[in-house]
Amino acid sequence: MDVDLTSLTIAVLGGTGPQGRGLARRFAAAGLDVVLGSRDAARAADAAAALESGGRVRGTSNAEAAAAGDIVLVVVPWDGHAELLGSLRHELAGKVVVDCVNPLGFDKQGAYALPVEEGSATQQAAAILTESRVVGAFHNVSAVLLEDPSIESIDTDVLVLGDDREATDLVQALADVVPGMRGLFGGRLRNAHQVEAFTANLISVNRRYKAHAGVRVTDV
């Protein structure tokens, strides 16, 4: 897909958390303009200023970030997912919305996938944002690696899920701007559950081997 991503603004809702900050850092380093959103606009502004992005990242409220973004990433805690998206239906109408949320629980045995009535966080987003083009992606990327400025290449594949071919192609291209990262189509929205849930397995791998493992798909 031949798209000039440098003409687009990437918004990151929940952008003050590790995953949001890390993705913002990588997109800005690739020359894209990024808006961090947060419930606290001042906190988002502080997070943006700390990224040393050459002015390519700014911070504001989630609502203003949603309105400003051409592609909007949702990187918020699972327990606030539905409420936030429901409050931003108007701002997100007509836009490509990339759900990055993993519904996980934690106990003494480690991480585990939580049941979701709609099937997955991505499907929940699609059910709420009926006028948006919802895609699932960036579920299995290590926030630790994304945030570390000494790491130049993020060597992982990003599985992109969705029912809108143009939207999934666009998000694959977005993943491709990060050195080492590759966007791959991973199936329809109905297949998002296992990709989100697989993050629990990666957490177990990382704890056992003291690593920051990602996903690589062979023979593609």
Automatic annotation (TrEMBL):
GO biological process terms on file:
copper ion import; NADPH regeneration
InterPro entries in alphabetical order? NAD(P)-bd_dom_sf, NpdG, P5C_Rdtase_cat_N, STEAP_metalloreductase
Q: What is the primary gene name for this protein?
A: npdG
> Which SUPFAM superfamilies is this protein grouped with?
NAD(P)-binding Rossmann-fold domains
Q: Which Pfam families match?
A: F420_oxidored
Domain Pyrroline-5-carboxylate reductase catalytic N-terminal positions: 9-103
Q: What is this protein called?
A: NADPH-dependent F420 reductase
Work out whether the entry's keyword set contains Manganese.
Answer: no
Q: Name one GO molecular function term.
A: ferric-chelate reductase (NADPH) activity
Record bears the keyword Ribonucleoprotein: no
Lineage, highest ranks first: Bacteria, Bacillati, Actinomycetota, Actinomycetes, Propionibacteriales
Q: Which UniProt keywords apply?
A: Oxidoreductase
Q: Name one GO cellular component term.
A: plasma membrane
Highest taxon of the lineage: Bacteria
Q: Which organism is it from?
A: Nocardioides glacieisoli
